[in-house]
Automatic annotation (TrEMBL):
Keywords: Membrane, Transmembrane, Transmembrane helix. This is ABC transporter permease. The chain crosses the membrane at residues 151-169, 189-212, 245-267, 274-292, 343-362, 383-403. Signal peptide: none annotated. It comes from the Bacteria.
Length: 631
């Protein structure tokens, strides 16, 4: 009988097919959603990983001294490099000495922002060095510091388990099964046992998939470190390691899955209808996440929602800082920690509740009074399976790669950042008044282009004019992300080209509020220096970073971190020429997708005309020389 029931739910009722599709969907969504990170780290993950690899682990006196020495060197790197450049220009030192000595300062300038992130982690660990280690928090924080539900897992459990009892009622098999003592009791026990084992196995599988996806994306090393090494768990009372926390999370979710299986089974036995069981089960599991997205009540309800989230039982008290009427900062409790005794009491209560669910389900099933059915409703599962397969294909199907056609266009950021001409109009950005004006070259008529203040948000930091369009970028200082708009000069229709500004201020299903603190606001205080667009990509420069955005996928990539601020930058036929921190002339080749420095070209000013690059050479007493660009 056990084999027959397994075969029925996995093969006949398409359970294996649903599980396989949901696994594919889970992997795709996990990889697409990524992991918790920081805007600064995202812009320089290599530099952050290098620092973490150097300093990770328990804090020691020697490691503290190394961090403090590196902090001093990073803070003074710009001044040291500028002084070294002056000595080289004045002839005090030679080119070889300059290049050799400037490398260390150059690297520190590129990695300045991510080192500050590591240095903040050091100050956090310094407060309690015995239970706080330096480590890469990104993967573990994603795994342990969120209470949002796993929609794919919950949907999979509901779809797979609903036919367990409903199928017998809707197919008329219950009349035959319940006509014997064995069918009354043994079948019920076997079905409930199979349901519990199946949902716990699926839950373990989905949790392990999330673990390995995160491990592959960002790494889940240092599982033996204390839980308090993650800043989110600074107030947690559990003296356990990260691996132990993950094991507790897994066990709690398994208990929640078994309780959820009892709820679905009992609902199916009472309603004897698939649609009603699907609806009631969905409401029972999803409603608590909607009503209590950031409250500890989620974990006290006698429902499986808190157990399937799992992580909140290990959290400490979470505070939110806010200004009171007197202007001082005070902490407001966002999430009250669940004590260890309370946690054990809740687990015991859930176990008793689960046992009662299963016993009552068995009682209800075995005492069902046989009734002759006038009609048997046929059920067709193929539309549901086909719909799920189509959804999976749509989600995991990738976008086509952008083409590599050469873009014949030249743009000098120094001359055209605030001005450009196209389609018979001269376009100008007035940064002081935050407006863009257009002047007809033929008639001299001047008018305002940005005439939709309710659509445009933020300050305009740069424009880019070409092919009858005026593009401009807006940003709000202190807020993450940018918006890029385009204005068609034929009909002056405005279009949103790209948007990376978070639309919500908080995680709807999580604890952490999306409101920025002062430290986060300081990361977004630099205006974009220039903006360039072609058919496939968007380029812009902010701070010292040259950023590329794929217009098809929206993916953002840092392609250079050494752009010298205030210097010349030219976009020429799809390639970007710029001056780096060592005053070398460097070029990003779009078709090759790499950056390299041009040999022996040291300059502080250049321009490109008719295939020739004219530059002021710092090696030849600032003479104007010409470099032929290979076509």
């Amino acid at each position: 009988m056990l084999y027959q029931e397994w075969r029925k739910i996995l093969i006949k009722q398409k359970g294996l097919l649903v599980i396989a599709m949901m696994i594919i969907l889970k992997i795709a969504l996990t990889l697409q959603q990524g992991y918790d990170s920081d805007l600064i780290i995202n812009r320089n993950p290599e530099g952050y990983s290098a620092y973490i690899k150097l300093y990770e682990g328990k804090l020691t006196k020697a490691k503290e001294q190394q961090l403090q020495d590196e902090y001093y060197a990073v803070v003074h790197a710009t001044a040291e490099l500028d002084g070294l450049a002056r000595q080289w220009k004045d002839g005090i030192i030679g080119q070889d000495v300059y290049e050799q000595t400037s490398k260390q300062y150059y690297e520190r300038i590129k990695n300045n922002a991510v080192f500050n992130v590591v240095y903040n982690q050091y100050y956090y660990a310094k407060e309690a060095p015995e239970e706080r280690y330096l480590m890469d928090e990104r993967g573990w924080s994603t795994l342990l510091a969120h209470s949002r539900p796993d929609f794919v897992l919950l949907l999979c459990l509901i779809i797979v388990l609903t036919p367990l009892f409903c199928y017998e009622y809707e197919s008329g098999m219950d009349s035959l099964l319940l006509s014997s003592s064995r069918g009354k009791y043994q079948t019920g026990v076997v079905k409930l046992a199979i349901g519990a084992m199946l949902v716990m196995t699926i839950t373990v599988l989905f949790t392990v998939i999330e673990y390995f996806c995160l491990d592959g994306m960002v790494g889940l090393k240092n599982g033996s470190f204390p839980l308090q090494s993650l800043k989110f768990f600074a107030n947690s009372d559990y003296p356990i390691t990260l691996n132990q926390a993950f094991l507790i999370l897994l066990l709690v979710r398994m208990l929640g899955a078994a309780l959820f299986a009892g709820c679905i089974s009992l609902t199916g036995i009472i309603t004897k209808n698939t649609v009603i069981t699907l609806f009631i089960s969905s409401v029972l599991i999803f409603l608590p996440y909607i009503l209590f997205p950031s409250k500890p009540w989620l974990y006290y309800l006698p429902l499986p929602s808190g157990l399937l989230a799992g992580t909140g039982y290990l959290w400490g008290t979470v505070y939110e800082s806010a200004y009171n009427d007197q202007g001082s900062v005070e902490k407001i409790v966002q999430f009250q920690a669940i004590g260890r005794k309370t946690f054990l009491f809740l687990i015991a209560g859930y176990a008793i509740e689960m046992a009662l669910f299963y016993l009552y389900s068995l009682k209800k099933y075995s005492k069902y009074m046989l009734k002759r059915r006038l009609m048997h409703r046929k059920r067709n599962k193929s539309p549901l399976s086909l719909s799920l397969l189509i959804i999976c294909c749509l989600i995991i199907s990738g976008c086509e790669h952008a083409g590599k056609a050469k873009d014949i266009f030249t743009f000098d950021a120094r001359d055209a950042r605030n001005y450009g001409e196209t389609a018979g109009y001269a376009i100008k950005l007035d940064e002081e008044n935050n407006i863009i004006t257009a002047k007809s070259i033929d008639t001299g008529e001047e008018f305002l282009l940005t005439r939709e203040p309710f659509i445009q948000k933020g300050d305009i930091s740069a424009i880019f004019v070409r092919d009858g369009w005026c593009y401009y970028v807006t940003q709000t200082l202190g807020t993450e992300g940018i918006r890029i708009y385009g204005i068609d000069l034929k009909d002056f229709r405005q279009k949103l080209i790209y948007n990376s500004v978070p639309e919500n201020t908080e995680d709807f299903f999580g604890i952490a509020s999306g409101q920025q603190d002062l430290e986060e606001m300081s990361r977004n205080t630099s205006l974009i220096y220039c903006l360039v667009l072609n058919e496939n990509y968007i380029y812009f420069v902010v701070n010292s970073e040259l950023v590329k955005i794929n217009r098809n996928t929206g993916r953002e990539t840092i392609i250079a971190r050494d752009v010298k601020g205030g210097m010349s930058l030219v976009y020429y036929n799809g390639d970007i020429y710029y001056i780096d921190h060592q005053y070398r002339l460097s070029v990003y080749k779009e078709q090759e997708d790499n950056v390299h420095a041009l040999d022996s070209l040291y300059t502080d000013n250049f321009r490109i005309e008719n295939g020739s690059l004219h530059y002021r050479s710092l090696l030849e007493d600032k003479q104007i020389l010409t470099y032929k660009i290979a076509q």
